[in-house]
Amino acid sequence: MLQPLSNEQRINKMIADFNQQSSCQISTLPAWHFCDNEVDANECADLVLQGVKRATTSSLYWFEANNEALPRVGDLAIFTNWQGRPLGIIETTSVVITPYNQITEAYAALEGEGDKSLRYWQQVHWPYYQRELHGTAYSRHPEMPLVCEQFQLVFKESS
User: Which of 10, 36, 56, 80 has the fewest Cβ atoms within 10 Å of its own Cβ atom?
Assistant: First the structure.
């Protein structure tokens, strides 16, 4: 009987399948999940697969506190469910730094969560940024800079 593939094997297979489909020659891609909890991470991943979620937003402070490079247009990344199973590959199409208090209704809709309203976006993201910045030298505030990343789904897991 065949053993199920590990998440690492699934990631390698996804990259190989993507390379074959796109004629790329990528050897590795970053792999990560959305959000900071299982329910939201899995829901957001499903929204991406459905074509509803086309943006994600972290605070610029998180990137600075974690010494992470900002996303750039053209970047590819594998998104996973909470358990680390790869589900697809997204390509960054836009990166804009925007203060929290200047997020628009249109951008909130691109995030695709809840009823897609700015009110809902604020309700779930304000406490999220508190959690995201916990333990760092930063704190949330209405003018804090956010990294607003738009993306498109370019590849789905085949099995």
Answer: 36
